[in-house]
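Dear colleague,

Thank you for sharing your sequence with our group. We've completed the structure prediction you requested, and as agreed, I am returning the results in plain text so they can be pasted directly into your records. Please verify that the sequence below matches your submission; if there's any discrepancy, let me know and we will rerun it promptly.
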Amino acid sequence: MRIGIIGAGHAGIEAAKAARAGGADAVVVYSNEGVLPYSRPKLVALAFSQVRPEEILQKPAPWYRENGIDLRLATPVTGVRPEIGGVVTAAGEEQFDALVLACGAEPVQPPIPAPPNALLPLWSQAQALAVRDRLQPGATVLVLGGGVLGIE
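Please find the predicted structure tokens below.
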């Protein structure tokens, strides 16, 4: 059985692990991001220089290969064809026996009038690194949002 998983967050990687443990012959995980899957709640620690990017990884790079998981980084899924279990990417179309949608969603940024680059979203590793690079000791930070990262 071939399983396709759209999304490489916690749910996607755990689904891949469970699929392989359940006997799936092939498991493909598609990720929009070009970095290894990481723990999203730990992005705050990354943004505030408490950890390095490699310290927030869900699994080390060799784990995916050792567990028979085809992790496709920087491969956004641009379409889904549920009638045939297909996904569409820039590379073309691929069919699976089952698809798992674990893609989550990006937060909505409210329309707040502000100078360019005054508002920094924090939802990806790249955004966390941008916040980290911009912060100065003693700076004041206003957090808008009470989701998992805002509370953290």
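Summary note from our side: The chain has a mean pLDDT of 93.

Kind regards,
the structure core
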